[in-house]
Amino acid sequence: MPTEAVQEVIKYAAPTRLPAAPSFVAGIVNLRGRVTPLVRLRELLGVPNGDNDGGDAAGSEDKFIIVCRRRGLQMGMMIERVHTMYRVPQQDIDWAIESHLGISVDFVSGLLKADERLISIVSVDKILDCVLKR
């Protein structure tokens, strides 16, 4: 996720559920007077949780919230952990992944090659658009 979209990373806070919200929206929290929707990033991106008991992964696995602010709106994305933060030159990021892959990539805006790994760069704007549409 681009660092310019990240306001802060905080410890997990239990949200107030919203009855008509899509399943990937965990609910809302009050962060310093701002009502902030929380998104289950793992569910939205379709990443399996590795939990075979069928329980709620959000409460047992998500330990942090990445608070993002885009276009004047604030949103929190629930994550299990922060692996590493990279500061890389723009030329090391491939922003044209859709043209290379020939398919639509819903929430990924770029790829970074670090050593022998490919790291996906999540588009906060695309996630925000998805939350607003539903």
Automatic annotation (TrEMBL):
Short name of any one Pfam family annotated for the protein: CheW
SUPFAM superfamilies associated with the record: CheW-like
Record Gene3D superfamilies: CheA-289, Domain 4 (2.40.50.180), SH3 Domains (2.30.30.40)
Domain CheW-like: residue ranges: 1-133
Database matches in SMART domains: CheW
Entry protein name: Chemotaxis protein CheW
